[in-house]
Write a structure and sequence with these properties.
Its cofactor is [4Fe-4S] cluster. Keywords: Iron, Iron-sulfur, Metal-binding, Methyltransferase, S-adenosyl-L-methionine, Transferase. Pfam families: B12-binding (PF02310), Radical_SAM (PF04055). This protein is α/β, with parallel strands linked by helices. Among the domains are: 21-171, Rossmann fold (3-Layer(aba) Sandwich), CATH 3.40.50.280; 175-233; 238-325, 2-Layer Sandwich (Transcription Regulator spoIIAA). The protein has helices at 34-45, 59-69, 84-97, 108-112, 114-118, 135-144, 187-209, 216-233, 261-264, 278-294, 313-325, 336-352, 367-372, 379-392, 409-423, 446-453, 473-477, 487-497; strands spanning 21-26, 49-54, 73-77, 102-106, 125-128, 152-154, 177-179, 238-243, 246-247, 274-275, 301-304, 329-333, 355-363, 396-402, 431-438. The protein has a seven-stranded mixed β-sheet with strand order 7-8-11-12-13-14-15. Strands 2-1-3-4-5-6 form a six-stranded parallel β-sheet, sandwiched between helices. The longest helix has 23 residues, at 187-209.
């Protein structure tokens, strides 16, 4: 449901036993929690009713839902983020006040911190990996009391991914419709943003002079501004965030938890890149467009949030051609080597199919660090891409990370130099930077082991992971290797990342 209001259930399924109900509690987010929406569809196919609320729901509201809805299971969809504290609080309260309800933790957090979650008495089941094929079986096992599952439940990638779709009817889709300016950085969106700010200021100035808008001049000026607004926003597309057409990434960057078999393994435990076909994508676009139209909104674009969209190149291009044929723009991610291969064939294709922006995980401006994290990327490709961005005129957004345990001072400064140079416009208006961000070690990755060797102290409990936050001095104290950087570098980091870095300058 949207913002814990207008609760929507599968009440049309009258044959469902009242006790066979699941309440999902999800991370509070500006974007749809697709993992849970897929699970709702899987449960629906098994005849199990479900309801979803956000973890920021007030305790009294949650009590009312638990009392009225009477779920057999509460499923917590948890990311390793500050909100993990809220999930713990909800779990303890439910365990104390509603002992008949089984509590299941699933998602990335219990998947990468499964052993720690197993030690928590307020969690009945720790669900690891993907759940569409297994979670309905667990719910029925709990309801029927057959006890086939132990506390640790191993999920796997669905055997047939196209069998499942997000339960879009459970959320208000218009809340996930964003202006193109929300993430796209291009000459066009910069003009739109600047003009909108000017218009807003003019409106504010007029209303300050004439609060009642009684003057004919005020009325006429505001009418003219409205006409300008219409012209401005006709250029600004509405993009739906977001759609995932495949799961998994076959690459093995040392800092990333996505390739872990426990997250993307099949029933045999082997890594699986799984994908939806074109017909599935067409169906989702139709459903999203129809539901937005009910709210008086138009679908003009879609963000594609796959970990690695391009594994099946033919499938990928077919999907993007379809989106273009529907008059839709799109946001996409790609690797630098993919974009420049065969004389920029893919990058040119993005331009031909109405791509709004392509995002690449550049990570570092040091070849030494790129090799260290096994990015399998050539730094020179970045410069080639930035030059070609001005030719193809598809915005190129590059993300960076600094502070890897083995990263040198020279490497950090190369990345900071690169980001500042791009931001200052040295490579043209079609290139922009996301970040840089601070490296955070997560269990199951090579960089996590390196971080521990470099002095990273593992949080005492899985909930304490939620306290690791890049804006706090406590967060910085977790990374002792950063104290070895010269004071000049620490001052640059403080400029980029805020006052949290002042703690490091004393060392």
């Amino acid at each position: 449901v949207n913002k814990n209001s207008d609760l929507m259930t599968d009440s049309d399924n009258q044959s469902t036993n009242q006790s066979t109900r699941v309440l999902f509690i999800t991370q509070s987010s500006a974007y749809p929690q697709l993992g849970v929406l897929y699970l709702i569809d899987a449960l629906r196919q098994a005849g199990i009713e479900s309801l979803v609320v956000s973890c920021d729901i007030p305790a009294e509201n949650l009590d009312s839902i638990l009392t009225d809805y009477r779920p057999a299971v509460v499923g917590m969809s948890v990311l390793t983020a500050p909100q993990v504290v809220e999930f713990k609080g909800h779990s303890i309260r439910i365990k104390n006040d509603y002992p008949e309800i089984s509590i299941v933790w699933g998602g990335v957090h219990p998947t990468i911190l499964s052993e720690e979650c197993m030690d928590s008495s307020y969690i009945d089941f720790v669900f690891i990996g993907q759940g569409e094929d297994v979670f309905p079986e667990l719910v029925l096992d709990i309801v029927n009391g057959t006890k086939k599952f132990t506390k640790r439940v191993q999920g796997h990638s669905p055997q047939t991914l196209d069998r499942y779709s997000p339960a879009w009817d459970k959320v208000s889709l218009s809340q996930y419709l964003f202006s193109e300016r929300h993430s796209v950085r291009s000459p066009v969106t910069r003009v739109q943003t600047s003009a909108a700010m000017v218009f807003d200021q003019i409106k504010s100035d007029i209303q300050a002079i004439d609060p009642g808008l009684s003057s004919d001049v005020s009325v006429h000026v505001l009418e003219d501004i409205k006409k300008w607004d219409v012209g401005l926003y006709e250029l600004d597309k509405s993009i739906f965030y977001y759609l995932i057409t495949s799961r998994g990434c076959p690459y093995s960057c040392t800092f990333c938890s996505e390739p872990l078999q426990i997250m993307h393994g099949n029933a045999e435990g082997k890594f699986t890149w799984n994908s939806h076909d074109l017909n599935w994508v067409k169906c989702q676009i139709d459903v999203i467009r129809e539901r937005l139209a009910r709210d008086g909104e138009d679908l003009e674009g879609v963000g594609i949030w796959d970990d690695m969209f391009w594994v099946d190149k033919k499938r990928a291009r077919t999907i993007l051609k379809y989106l273009a044929s529907e008059g839709l723009t799109y946001l996409i991610e790609a690797r630098p080597d993919q974009l420049i291969r065969d004389d920029y064939s893919l990058y040119n294709f993005l331009g031909e199919t109405n791509c709004s922006q392509v995002f690449i995980g550049a990570e570092s401006a040091s070849q030494e660090t790129l090799d260290y994290i096994k990015k399998h990327t050539d730094l020179e490709d970045y410069y080639r891409l930035m030059k070609h961005a001005s030719i193809v005129k598809v915005p190129l957004r590059m993300s960076f990370i600094v502070g890897f345990p083995g990263e040198t001072d020279e490497s950090v400064n190369k990345t900071l130099d690169f980001c500042e140079t791009v931001t200052n416009g040295a490579y043209g208006p079609w290139v922009n930077i996301s970040g840089p961000k601070i490296f955070t070690p997560y269990p199951g990755t090579v960089e996590y082991d390196r971080a521990v060797e470099a002095g990273f102290v593992k949080p005492a409990t899985h909930v304490d992971w939620g306290k690791i936050h890049r804006s706090t001095e406590a967060y910085l104290e977790c990374f002792p290797w950063m104290r070895n950087y010269p004071s000049a570098t620490l001052e640059r980091l403080e400029h980029h990342f805020g006052q949290g870095y002042s703690a490091l300058t004393t060392h």
